Sequence to fold (345 residues):
Amino acid sequence: MIRAGIIGGTGYTGAELVRLLSFHPEAELTYITSRQYAGQIFSDIYPALRTIADIEIEEFDLKKAQNRCDVVFTALPHKIPMEIIPGLIENKIKVVDLSADFRFRSIKSYEDYYCEHKAAEYLEKSVYGLCEVNSHLIRNASLVGNPGCYPTCSLLGIIPFIKHKKVNCDDIIIDAKSGVSGAGRGLSEGTHFCSVDEGFKAYKVMAHRHRPEIEEKIEEIADQKAGVCFTPHLIPAVRGMLATIYMRTSTDTSESELRNILCDYYKNSRFVRVLGEGEFPNIKNVSGTNFCDIGIKYDNGSKRLIIVSVIDNLVKGASGQAIQNMNLMFGLDEAKGLMVPPQAV
Ligand SMILES: NC(=O)c1ccc[n+]([C@@H]2O[C@H](COP(=O)([O-])OP(=O)(O)OC[C@H]3O[C@@H](n4cnc5c(N)ncnc54)[C@H](OP(=O)(O)O)[C@@H]3O)[C@@H](O)[C@H]2O)c1
Fold:
């Protein structure tokens, strides 16, 4: 059994890790931490998990993590993981970090959009945990930077076409929508029921931190500068994320050729489902699961490829993908513990 710990286990991604790990056949939860809730029982905070996760929450202590964990998930706000992860790695504990601290290759990009990096030497050692693209690297990694939710949703749609050099990467438009759980469990005026219910708004237009992450990953594959115009929106839903991506093709092509590229890229993927002609995905169909559903349309006249991609921000966009990464890091089937059937209704 893999002994798993969650640092920052009482937030939304932490709770989702607890839910999924509770039924993982080859992992057991041995350590959950939080500052505010230390000493309390996890299922008292999240009563849906009563009898499933009646585990005591503790304060973080490196020695305890060292004695009890083979892998640690850091489900913390950025800046905190970089302070504790070096200690975990030095003690031979594998780490999947859900924050942005170890996602970037470029220190400058991280520091321009987040804060000063105090463990920058670990950026080189970390692997970007987009499982469908980097599984060969993740298998040998001891530190994985789990991708952001918008980057996961967007890059899974974009990367197959970049790899086939079918699209221009200097003019990509991503119009994306997220459920409110994307903002985490902390209280804020913008996420009040009255602010969100029956509302629908754009936020952080061209100023969202996930844009440089998306651009960096496209540039690494395309080996040229990427230009992404990124507009995120908040929708009145708890979970779910949809990205509509517009790209111009660089060579003569057709919708069926483009669909074949996508189907071929994901032919062995357990979690990416490519939809048929005229079909477009719905966040409802992936809710609570690690699936990413993708539909495409090609407009011959404008040479524009339109990709619609959906995930559950808390699962494929965070905790599900983090467990998929753990599975790869420990040589397991990547889908172990993650084949939760979607709710059909
Ligand atoms: N929500 C999403 O959809 C999503 C998707 C992808 C990635 N992420 C990333 O995943 C990470 C966690 O997100 P979340 O949505 O789960 O956040 P959250 O709901 O706000 O939970 C944060 C957790 O970290 C702990 N914490 C907060 N401040 C801390 C500090 N200064 N020192 C130590 N512990 C602290 C909190 O517990 P205490 O305050 O009790 O310690 C809590 O357990 C973030 O980096 C976020 O960007 C989130």
Remarks:
- The chain has a mean pLDDT of 97.
- The chain is about 30% helix and 20% strand.
- Residues 8-14, 34-37, 75-78, 80, 98-99, 148-149, 181-182, 184-186, 313-314, 317-318 surround NAP (CB under 6 Å).
